[in-house]
Amino acid sequence: MTGALPPVFGVTGWKNSGKTTMVERLVRELTARGHKVSTVKHAHHGCDVDHPGTDSLRHREAGASEVALVSGRRWALMHELREESEPPLDEILARLSPCDLVLIEGYKREGHPKLEVRRREAVRGEPLAPRDPQIRAIASDGTEDSGGLPLFDLDDIPAIADFILHHCGLADPGDLRHDRR
Fold first, then answer.
1. Which pTM was predicted?
2. For residues 160 and 167, what is the distance between their CA atoms, to the nearest angstrom?
3. Which pLDDT value is given to residue 181?
């Protein structure tokens, strides 16, 4: 990768619409096809990966601005904002390691292309697409007016993955192998 950000595609919807499940299922589908996928999850509430009594939490509470927690299986970098504003999405994307695609959960008001997830159990029922020109398709558990946008069943993960890959200009690594004769 030459410093350019990878393509991004978001999953948006109201609370309890199934955003996390959709992202999880898409990651499984896309990685099974050979793509390296990263995700960014926006949380409106405070989030913490530390627990009381851990050494890393003690470092943060002592005033460290960043704490890297590293093991033989994974690592995490925690950055304390303290009096700083939440960083913009582009700044977060720039910190990610190279990958083929970044799926973004949340960030309803950002300008990246998105899939709107609709479920009957969602907290709110009004569609987001009419007010967000970045919504490129809808995944739903019912039949409703899609406003001319592609409409997918929530469980048709292969078709949704195909749509996202096509929209982002990505081919399946498996497709490339089949084209070589």
1. 0.84
2. 10
3. 28
